[in-house]
Amino acid sequence: MTCNASFVFSDSYLNYHFHSDHPFNQLRVVLAKELLEAVNTLQPSDMIEPRQATDAELELFHDKAYIQAVKQASTGKLPEEKGLEFGLGTEDTPVFTNMHEASSMLVGGSLNAVDAVLEGKSTHSLNLGGGLHHGLKRKASGFCVYNDGAIAIKYLRKKYDVKVLYVDTDAHHGDGVQWAFYEDPNVCTLSIHETGRYLFPGTGNVNERGIKAGHGYSFNLPVDAFTEDESFLQVYESAFEEICAFFKPDIIVTQNGADAHAYDPLTHLCTTMTAYERIPMLAHKMAHEYCNGNWVALGGGGYDMWRAVPRAWAQVWNVMKTGQPQTGKIPDMWLRKWQPQAPVTLPQYWHDEPSIVPEIPRRAEITEKNAKFLLSALKYTKQK
Amino acid sequence: MLVESIMTKNIQTLPPDATIAEALQLLQQYHIRHIPITNEKNHVIGIVSDRDIRDASPSVFSKSAVQSELQHELQSIMSQPVITIHPLDFVEEIASIFYEKEFACLPVVSNNELIGIVTEKDMLHTLIQLTGTNVQSSHIELKVPHRPGILPEVTAIFGKHKTNITSVLVYPYHDDPNYKILVFRIQTMNPVPVIEDLRKAGYELLWPNHMAGPTR
Ligand SMILES: [Zn+2]
Fold first, then answer.
1. Beta strand pairing status for B113-119 and B44-49?
2. DSSP class of B82
3. What is the DSSP letter of B164?
């Protein structure tokens, strides 16, 4: 299937930069984009520019006082004590020059992606610069300043009045987006992540189901550390399909963090590219089955930025554009350009060798436990 | 943490001459599972649980309910004497009463008068907060020598990275008295720099570890 898709990008995405030793590096987006150009699935006519989100748009989710603090931090005028109150200036989310401008550009990218889809210019839209799902109402957190996903969904609700299904496959729990819609029955959130027993942010337990009118519209699948492709995909695919049947969304917004990959230094999940091929395949299928194709995809985490992230993110676009992931060899052109800068050996193929994942001693127990969580997470969807 | 900060102050009580039927109604109306029995001076003289009531009147739940059983007075089935706790008791201390006596609810008494109750559920909620799992954080577990001064040595490393600690727990290390386990929850998404420094300082990490980790 060939679909009409748009790719949001600007070199200004590189301005969202904490410092050179920080694990969050937007060069990832450039690496994915150039990989796509090298295989010819991304053409200039597919591209759309991001814009800077306005204050009023940021206020759809964030507090005025917080936005003011980010602006002050941008020009180096935010006192240290005041910054810490807003989560700004920590080792995770240090302040940097023009952080307001850089952060609101990522948000505007997600808003443009939303408009492109809802105004019918494209069926799917991808903003790899976004997906900053830890940002809270009045607090920066986990490398995220403004929560573009939460803002984009508020914007979707306000401007287009559609029912939104948000699906987050980042290895960390999508806490900021979940809390933003915890009482809202028109926004259903599904997050599959490594259990918070050990990993930041620690939330995302299966019993977080939403409150008040939103009860039953938050879904969490906290999978065990060292979970591999098969078990990860089993719970992801079952949950996604069943929740679509239950919720019947008008649009699907996916957050495509690529940090559940075995190479990722910050998490303990052990998936390979197999998972990153099937994740967008199912999102694509569900969008066409339930939403007339309406699908906005965002980036997110991913800290093995040379090996795991470019391929994982490129596959999201490949599926949007051609209905299939790429296979075979990675183009020489891309390898030649980037290998000299990379501290690791770049992968030669789109697919991973199964041997990159070591023998997991407790595989059977992990699989069993994840399946139990799936049953528990879906406890209430079957009755409705 | 003190009992007074976690106890429920809004309590439903009944006098000893109230009937099982009245108790049953109260349990259902307020969705509670325990009723302290008090005299006219608000002294606790017994306690009745939903279990006691079920055991005392098996026919209540069958079709052939014998109404006379429901009219028995609570003093005929209440548990006594009652173990009570004080508002200034430590929460950590009363946990062992729950564990050893297998009670699910403890009345809080001050100057002989009932002023609150603490249930097992309140207790668990407090323990959840003590472990710090309800706030954004990452988990780090260390095996350290059991000697004075070790905790500040370790926490200095967190301090160097300006990392906020949300909770600290200390466990024994299996049966080996020469070591103990320190468990920290720290407010960071990227614990890698802290972990590297802990390893450099010679501490053994139990989590994260590379026992089952991928080849990186
Ligand atoms: Zn993540």
1. unpaired
2. P
3. P
Gap from CA of A218 to ligand 1 centroid (Å): 18
Q: Tens digit of pLDDT for each residue in A275-334?
A: 999 999 999 999 999 999 999 999 999 999 999 999 999 999 999 999 999 999 999 999
E strand map for A210-363 = 218-223, 251-255, 295-298
Whether omega for the bond prior to residue A79 falls within 30 degrees of 0, making it cis, is no
pLDDT digits 0-9 by tens, A37-74: 999 999 999 999 999 999 999 999 999 999 999 999 99
Q: Which H or E element spans position A219?
A: strand A218-223
- Cβ atoms A332, A321 nearer than 8 A: no
Supply B151's token pair: 């905790």
Q: Is the alpha carbon torsion for A229, A232, A234, A237 positive or negative?
A: negative
Is B84 touching A (CB cutoff 8 A)?
A: no
CB pairs under 8 A between A and B: 77
On the question of pLDDT at B117 being above 90, the answer is yes
Query: Is the ipTM, as predicted for this complex, more than 0.85?
Result: no
Q: Are A90 and B188 in contact (CB < 8 Å)?
A: yes
Q: CB–CB of A134/A172 below 8 Å?
A: yes
pLDDT of the residue at B132: 66
